[in-house]
Amino acid sequence: MIRLAVRRFRCEASACPRRTFAEQVTGLTFRYGRRSQLQETMLVAIGRVLAGRAGARLADMLHCTVSPNTLLRRVRALTAEPPEKCPRVLGVDDFALKRGHVYGTVLIDIETGRPVDVLPDRTAETFTAWLKQHPGAEIVCRDRASAYAEAVRTAAPHAIQIADRFHLWLNLCKTVEKCVVAHRRCLTSPEDEAQGEVMEPPTGSPGIEGKRAANTRRHFAAVHEMYDKGVTIQVIAKALRMDRKTVRKYAHAATVEELLAPPLQRRRMLQPWAEYLTMRWQEGCTDSGRLFRELQQRGYRGSSRSVRRWLEPLRSAEAPIPKQSDAPTVRQVVGWLTRHPDDLTSGPRLRLKRILTRCPELADLRMHIQGFARMMKHLDGHLLPRWIKAAEGSELPPLHGFARNLNKDFDAVTAGLTLPYSSGMVEGHVNRVKFLKRQGYGRASFDLLRRRILLTP
Fewest Cβ atoms nearer than 10 Å: which of 50, 197, 234, 430? Predict the structure, then answer.
């Protein structure tokens, strides 16, 4: 605490609205301030970096007690206006204000690495209006979003658009995954396929236990005890309080196994999926609900009860031991195909070689992947038309779709594979924005979050 003795001045002019004012000490005090200039600068810096609660805790440790709201008011008092002219190389990307619902846009100067401005949404109209108010962009680095591309074409038609190489590679990896899923059977060797035998569910089920089986046996015994003595079905139904059709079904069955076994019609309905059900049962999946949902995705139109009854004979046997398959997963194969060949160890390299030997389509896919990777590494954008033509001539439909999308954004993709600029710096700032959001407990208003993005070093 500093105690000062300063002069107080009074104005004798009656028309002056300021009647009195105190003398200020240069470098120490300021008008209406209860802190020194150095302490005020320190609190502003704490508020910029740590915001409210965390900043207040740090200030208290420095023996400068202050509330979180006071720090936030200091941050809001700072100027955070964008420059009048847009930087020469502009980077743009979106970030989540509320994930899955509300998104914003962050603009970065690629040459200096500093944020330029933050927009409240990611629509083409908002970005177009900003570009018109701040002309001067010569190069715009963006992802594959069509909204940003449309805004640049409208407001800055002479600017060079650059499709980010990371997003291009990400789109290619998703395409590779679709191709591998389409040729999933090639991941399993013929020896492994020979080991998997398809077994039909037994027609008889003497070992089936459970509440339903116990009730069936009990009713079967009660009905036949009276029916064998010549009692009519109507009298049996009245005595046992059962429906006549149910009593007739029990009475006409020769053995109880006929009642426990799935009907022939139900077995015929599930016959196209018998191999798949047996395979999943041997893999250890015994949940009828999960199997029913998997069959629905494959075109099954029956009921879940039919699947449950189809599995009942299999439950009489010992629970299956989950089979450890030697076949690699789709994700593993995608990683082997999209990774640099020098980064693969001997084991995955050998397994990938066997898969490519069995599947010529995946071998052709690997050649296209390596060609695209060389273009990205050496910035050979002039080779893109040749690569697209080769991809369209392959026998992989997902690769055809990827090539068509490249043609739709051909100029930006060519620039991304030719010029050294990219959106990598923008992605780093998006990661920093996520940190600032979490630091504010996700409850900061857009105005405060924007100031922190622009002012936090």
Answer: 197
Which residues partner with 98 through β-bridges?
Answer: 102
Q: Which of 160-169, 363-372, 381-390, 443-452 has the lowest mean pLDDT?
A: 443-452
> For the CA atoms of 12, 17, 20, 23, what is the dihedral angle to 10 degrees?
-110
Whole-angstrom distance, CA of residue 359 vs CA of residue 113? 46
Using a 10 angstrom Cβ sphere, with 0-12 exposed, 13-18 middle and 19 or more buried, the burial of residue 368 is: buried
* Residue 242 CB neighbours (<10 A): 18
pTM: 0.61
- The span from the CA of 370 to the CA of 390, in Å, is 13
CA-nearest of 42, 89, 97 to 64 is 42
What's the CA gap between 106 and 183, in Å, rounded? 40
HSE toward the beta carbon, residue 306, CA cutoff 13 A: 19
- Helix, strand or coil, per DSSP, at residue 20: strand
Q: Alpha-carbon dihedral of residues 308, 311, 317, 319, nearest 10 degrees?
A: -70
